Amino acid sequence: MTARPILTAAEMRDAERRSGQPERDMVERAGLALATAIARFTGPLRTLVVAGPGNNGADGMVAARHLAAAGWDVAVAVAGQSRPGSVAAELRADWPGHLADPAAAAPATLVVDALFGTGFARPLDDALMAAVLPLWSAARLRVAADLPSGVDADTGAVLSDLPAAHLTIAFGALKPAHRLQPAAGRCGRVAVADIGVEVGSTLTELPRPRVHPPTAQSHKYSRGMVAVVAGAMPGAAALAASAAARAGAGYVLQLMAGGALDTHPHAIMRRIVSADAVAEQLDDDRIGAVLVGPGLGRDADARRRLDAALLSGKPLVIDGDALALLTPSRLSRHPGSILTPHDGEFRRLFGDLPGSKVDRARAAAARTGCTLLLKGADSVVADPDGRAAILPPASPWLATAGTGDVLAGIVAARRAAGDTPFDAAAAGAWLHADAADRVGPGLIADDLLTHLGPR
């Protein structure tokens, strides 16, 4: 499936300028798309459109006009003064009904939030917040034009604490705030409306990956061999190894520091090896990826096992404890590796980098030469070449022990099968989230394993 572009506010403005289209035409298309989406989302309801002074408000005015023409009971409240001669000012002047102040507007069943769009990156002032908060709270349905008011389009920060929208209509393209938390949680369902502007970006939404089934000519090694370097906590490594097998690897070898060998599934080849023997086990040309970190531990023995993995010359997926034992300078000596930190591990490695989650992941990828899969409800994949992608909102039930080990195993399977580091990380993140959706509420990490196959 095609990856949908995600544009920052500045990129969207540039795309609109490059289109050469009159501003009024784009506003008319956006407003019509907003009205059409609202009509499809719900039947005719008593509606209040709250319009700001700029083009986001203008979009709302056009939507109000179309809904009223279709017989809806529509009221409009306007905030702030539109610039004289602007499209927003013209549309306000053309509205045949009363334009209320938000503080005096009556609540309605449906509120259309057309206050502020992508260009607004500060909290609502106290007076406006006091006026609109009761309106948002009283509405049974809330629809946002382009973005819910009070969120930062580029960082996903929530700047004003308004109730979440049920539906957001993104004009032209997704914006980072539609996919980055916590703003993504304020957007509800997100639909993208075509406003006739050609868009493109090095930042995209993660699409469903292309997962090719084995052919009649496939064998276990051609499907990819994964070696999992285990350590102090064999259960974590076992989850990762099982996930690699379920995600398509034809052969999975788990190199254990100790523990029982007769654990399920029996399809995983398990060997107890000393730290000094790990290098010899990894000296196998059939190995397509080495995963190190899940359950590795952080003692001297773990360090020797990690060293063997790093010196193996094999494609690496580095997770968990291994990330705690490394530094950015050492990681930079292994470019092409895939790093899978959560936010805490990322901060320990790289500190509090500035910018959005995407900015931080890109900076770390450029610094190390590695592909970053920065995990979370809004997982971000970033490549040293500048590409980045954001996962659509994932199940909050993934916030439980062991799910990161499963994710690392999936990524290792994809890497062993021949995916590039970026594609392996992207596919792993998507398949992991998809498995969680299939399991549903109350999942534990083990539940994901039997839901990793194709639908």
TrEMBL record:
Its EC number(s): 4.2.1.136, 5.1.99.6
Alphabetically ordered keywords of this record: ATP-binding, Isomerase, Lyase, Metal-binding, Multifunctional enzyme, NAD, NADP, Nucleotide-binding, Potassium
Residues reported in the UniProt entry to bind (6S)-NADPHX: 55-59, 117-123, 146, 236, 295, 342, 405
Cofactor requirements of the protein: K(+); Mg(2+)
UniProt xrefs under SUPFAM superfamilies: Ribokinase-like, YjeF N-terminal domain-like
Function as written in the Swiss-Prot or TrEMBL entry: Catalyzes the dehydration of the S-form of NAD(P)HX at the expense of ADP, which is converted to AMP. Together with NAD(P)HX epimerase, which catalyzes the epimerization of the S- and R-forms, the enzyme allows the repair of both epimers of NAD(P)HX, a damaged form of NAD(P)H that is a result of enzymatic or heat-dependent hydration. Bifunctional enzyme that catalyzes the epimerization of the S- and R-forms of NAD(P)HX and the dehydration of the S-form of NAD(P)HX at the expense of ADP, which is converted to AMP. This allows the repair of both epimers of NAD(P)HX, a damaged form of NAD(P)H that is a result of enzymatic or heat-dependent hydration.
Subunit structure and binding partners: Homotetramer.
Designated name of the protein: Bifunctional NAD(P)H-hydrate repair enzyme
Record organism: Sphingomonas jejuensis
